[in-house]
Specification:
The chain has 264 residues and is an alpha/beta fold. It is built from ten helices and eight strands. It has one domain: Aldolase class I (TIM Barrel, Alpha-Beta Barrel), CATH 3.20.20. α1 runs parallel beside α10, α5 packs parallel to α6 and α6 crosses α8. It starts with 8 loop residues before the first strand and ends with a helix. The structure holds 2-phosphoglycolic acid. The site of 2-phosphoglycolic acid (PGA) has 12 residues, from β8.
């Protein structure tokens, strides 16, 4: 599978439902922004995206930083209307969000289906957002059925997307068994990641042919400042989706530094 384009590396911070107050959110964001402004090689060769809870987006968009973009953690598949409790991609785009995490396993645990994620992806693209499709198996069974699970998940979530649109989608491979919020979680290795990234790339290239190589794939699942370098170098990925460690400015900045150093 040719991947002739050098992908710009991308590091996401997924804050999930944290922190508790706007003041803390502004403090964390400002601290990361200040430290990142001092790191070389973060300009052209990598992107940094922080995805806070919806309610903090507007305030954070006013904090000056040229290096950090904003993303959201979900978006309703539609633009405006009588949908109590929902927030649309159009609204998020209007607040300055550039990316949106969709299909996260913590949302899927509440019953979100591949079909719903597919609708959200299309709607987010129509709103000018770049969807970050989270996907990955719950367990690695000895019979290797998890490959079929991942294939179905990917195909159903990307159903109906054409070649032009797929290049705007980021795939986040997040094996649920490795995510920090999973009980009795286990560490995934860069080799586990690489194997799945190759598999995902094969599915993408069967479906989207020549443009598939340009689709960025990132890894997420308890990434921290100790293993980020290994995942970036040996996991076959174009970036990382960091949850828990992104709430610690020091750890998150360290991960960004590692990525910037590898990019040199
Ligand atoms: P984690 O979260 O790094 O805390 O495991 C990643 C994610 O769930 O997006």
């Amino acid at each position: 599978m040719p991947n002739n384009k050098v992908a710009t590396k991308i590091i996401f911070g997924n804050w999930k439902m944290n922190p508790l107050t706007l003041k803390e959110a502004e403090k964390l964001f400002s601290l990361v922004a200040k430290n990142v402004s001092q790191i070389k090689n973060t300009d052209k060769k990598m992107e940094i995206v922080i995805c806070p809870p919806f309610i903090y987006l507007e305030a954070l968009s006013k904090i000056r930083t040229s290096k950090i973009k904003l993303g959201a953690q979900d978006a309703f598949p539609g633009d405006v209307g009588a949908f109590t409790g929902e927030v649309s991609g159009e609204m998020l785009s209007g607040l300055g969000a550039k990316y949106v995490i969709l299909g996260h396993s913590e949302k899927r645990a509440g019953g979100e289906t591949n079909n719903e994620v597919n609708k959200k992806i299309k709607s987010a693209l129509a709103a000018g957002l770049r969807p970050v499709l989270c996907m990955g198996e719950g367990v690695r069974d000895p019979e290797h059925n998890y490959f079929n699970f991942v294939k179905t998940e990917l195909e159903e979530c990307l159903n109906g997307l054409n070649k032009n649109l797929i290049s705007k989608v980021i795939i986040a491979y997040e094996p649920i068994w490795a995510i920090s919020s999973t009980q009795n979680r286990k560490d995934a290795t860069p080799a586990d990641c690489l194997e799945m990234v190759i598999f995902i790339r094969k599915i993408l290239s069967d479906k989207f042919r020549d443009v598939a190589g340009g689709v960025r794939i990132v890894y997420g699942g308890s990434v921290n400042e100790k293993d980020a370098g290994d995942f970036l170098q040996k996991g076959g990925v174009d970036g990382l989706l960091v949850g828990k460690a992104s709430l610690d400015a020091k750890k998150f900045v360290e991960i960004i530094k590692i990525c910037a150093t590898l990019n040199k």
